[in-house]
Amino acid sequence: MSRYLAPLLAFAALILVFVIGLKLDPRALPSPYLLKPAPEFELPSLHEPERRVGSADYRGRIALVNVWATWCVGCRQEHEFLMQLAARNSIDIYGINWRDNRPDALRWLQHLGDPYVFSAFDEDARVGIDWGVYGAPETFLVGVDGIVLHKHLGPLDESAWQRDFVPLISASGSTP
Amino acid sequence: MKAALTFLAILFSMSVALAIDSDRAFDDPELQARYETIISEVRCLQCQNQSIKDSNVSLAADLRREIRRMLAEGKSDAEIYDFLVARYGEFALYRPRMAGKTLVLWLAPLMLLAAGALVAMRVVRRRMTLPIDNDTIGHE
Q: Tens digit of pLDDT for each residue in B59-110?
């Protein structure tokens, strides 16, 4: 009996592995920064090229750092949600405008609204590399102590926000 | 025949010209060799089945630029790999280093081989101890 059962069980186990494998998103990689200090950065502001903005501006406060670009379809998709989120006034959103050009980025914010406290202009992607960004949009939740609490890959929406961000923000003592 | 050969020769020379990032980055052949080794060992995370040497997407170009910069600054290969792993994780390297998290990657093939050998051994043992089928011989 076990002679026939064993291969069958092995086959079932293999199918299980495949099914689980199919459900995983191979693009969603765990950020090596998770639960580690977020990288510091300082860049020219998108709006005022001579002004320097960066991680020092949100030190000591919980912050959402959103990597975006005008050429990125997913960023267009999540923009409306970011606007809603900004309107709730629950958390400050900081933008890193990644590998973009200034006129396009400014026009985008003018047309679609600007949910960001500021957008840092990362033209040559140096800061993007420091943050391990490999596909915009990417959104990092940085805690009060500067630790990366969560990283979201792809367009952010209400359900992902409620599921992944809100509990972490509540746990850190702020009201989402 | 000659025309066909000429055509082939031209075709193959074109494939070289089409290679991505074919420009020499360094005059020093040793640095250039190190550069080429490193960029063929680093996975392009935007296009996961290509190395950053083979890929033309923006992220690969950015990473090549950073690697060129670090090599020019005199950084060692290990320092460059550390830089990439710190930012993108062990997955960025085609040959992840042996460490706690990647141990299973390195040991799994050996373990599978051992398991296969065990099964093979058991099968062979059993076959060896099977009684010779005397029935058919006896009744012939």
A: 899 999 999 999 999 999 999 999 999 999 888 888 887 777 778 888 899 9
CA distance A161 to chain B (A): 24
CA dihedral A158, A159, A161, A162 (to 10 degrees): 110
Q: How far B120 CA lies from chain A's nearest CA (Å)?
A: 15
The CA distance from B98 to B103, in Å, is 6
Query: Domain residues for B73?
Result: 1-97
In what helix (H) or strand (E) does residue A5 lie, and over which residues does it extend?
Answer: helix A2-23
The average pLDDT across A101-116 equals: 95
Band (pLDDT 50/70/90 cuts) for residue B19 is low
- Looking at the predicted complex, does its ipTM rise above 0.90? no
What own/partner pairs with CB < 8 Å and gap ≥ 24 does B28-31 have? B31/B71, B31/B72
Looking at the domain assignment, is residue B139 inside a domain? Answer: no
Cα–Cα distances in Å, from B90 out to A100, A159, B36, B85? 28, 30, 19, 5
Can you give the residue ranges of every domain in chain A?
A: 32-171
Within an 8 Å CB–CB cutoff, is residue A154 touching chain B? no
